[in-house]
Write a structure and sequence with these properties.
It is a single chain. The chain contains 11 helices and 11 strands. By secondary structure, the protein is an alpha+beta fold. It folds into 2 domains: about 120 residues, no CATH class; about 220 residues, PPM-type phosphatase domain (Phosphatase 2c, domain 1), CATH 3.60.40.10. The strands form 2 sheets. Strands 2, 3, 4, 5, 8 and 9 form a 6-stranded mixed beta sheet that branches. α2 packs parallel to α4. The longest helix is centred in the N-terminal third of the chain and has 24 residues. The protein starts with a helix and ends with a strand.
Length: about 375
């Protein structure tokens, strides 16, 4: 057994070298690898002459850049070569003794290589993965883009993610009928926030985009609830409010699924009021849940505001206090025609950076 192991050890280096050559020769990343290794070689050759300017820590930027721009196999090959250079500098360079820098370089390479491998297992690598993530995020936002409305109608929306994450658990889906007679909007808050709910938000938004505007508005929340119940995710629930507006006469109907209540501005009284409706359970909790709908009318000058809990909830106050705060901000914006209200509410949301925030305003002039 020891003989076999010893022979394997002697064959490992040439086999490894041949593998590295094959990897680099067939890689579209060859130009990047050449540039990175040239920079590393310059540090290696320059260290004996100017160790104060080219210490071992000078490899760190090269290591970091490689972790960003190279796929996992080319990255592993590059790190093997850089490690060899670092060992040479530590053994023969003139800037020693070295205590921390070589281990810092090794730890950085190990972390970046593990991250790159994890991403490659999911089919995501280097800049391609970053572009894909950004495209998915943009697609999620675009699904909820409210089309230009007929004369006399206006809409605005605003979203903010927790801690400026790429993805939000809050999203909307909006559909304007081809004859521009009806607008449907559903605002959803998936449990959690940030990248942890990215895949769930994408999956649910895709399902809803096939429901909103295609099925009877009264059945949208029921269908969404069935989808989440079948998905059987851990913490697989979401709150939502679904709104259906007749743009010809201003009549609307809506339903809540565990979501904060909508509020309406009534121009005739100059007051904001809560749109009272029986509250259905959050989506995904009860397979046979019922979502009662409430009806109302938007007269000229009226507006309807829907939002997520990040706007009104905070660790130090209950939702009722948050809604009072929100209505105070809304009343202050009446003089400006409610313009920019959603942006202000999202920016100043009671949850702050700790949660996603979203708000949508539909106004009739």
């Amino acid at each position: 057994m020891s003989t076999t192991t010893s022979q394997s050890g002697r064959l490992a280096l040439p086999e490894l070298g041949a593998s590295l050559v094959r990897t680099l020769a067939h890689s579209s990343s060859v130009p990047r690898v050449v540039v990175l290794l040239t920079a590393a070689l310059a540090i290696t050759l320059g260290n004996p002459y100017a160790p104060q300017y080219l210490p071992v820590s000078a490899y760190v930027p090269v290591i970091l850049l490689a972790g960003v721009v190279l796929p996992v196999r080319a990255l592993a090959a590059t790190y093997v070569v850089i490690t060899t250079m670092i060992i040479w500098v530590v053994a023969f360079g003139t800037g020693g003794p070295y205590y921390v820098a070589p281990f810092a370089c090794a730890a950085t390479m190990g972390t970046l290589l593990a991250t790159s491998y994890s991403r490659s297992q999911h089919g995501v690598g280097a800049f391609t993965g970053d572009r894909m993530i950004m495209e998915l995020r943009d697609s999620l936002f675009a699904i909820g883009e409210i089309p230009p409305l007929p004369a006399g109608w206006h809409a605005e929306r605003a979203f903010a993610t927790a801690h400026h994450q790429a993805f939000s658990g809050d999203f909307d889906v909006a559909v304007l009928q081809e004859d521009h007679s009806r607008l449907e909007v559903i605002l959803v808050d998936v449990a959690g926030h940030g990248q942890k709910v990215a895949t769930r938000s994408l999956a649910l938004s895709g399902a809803l985009s096939g429901l909103v505007g295609q099925v009877d508005p009264a059945g949208v929340l029921n269908a969404a609830n069935g989808y989440l119940a079948r998905a059987n995710w851990d913490e697989g629930y979401a709150t939502a409010v679904h709104l259906d507006v007749d743009l010809e006469n201003g009549c609307f109907n809506l339903a809540h699924a565990g979501h904060p209540p909508a509020v309406q501005f009534v121009a005739a009284t100059g007051q904001w009021q809560t749109v009272t409706a029986a509250l259905g359970p959050a989506l995904g909790l009860l397979p046979d849940a019922v979502y009662p709908r409430v009806e109302g009318v938007l007269e000229p000058g009226d507006a309807l505001l829907v939002y997520t809990d990040g706007v009104v909830e905070s660790p130090t106050a209950d939702v009722a206090d948050g809604i009072d705060w929100m209505l105070g901000r809304a009343e202050a914006s009446v003089g400006a025609g409610l313009s920019g209200l959603t942006t202000e509410l999202v920016r100043q949301g009671r949850a702050g950076e700790a949660d996603d925030r979203a708000a949508i305003l539909i106004r009739r002039s």
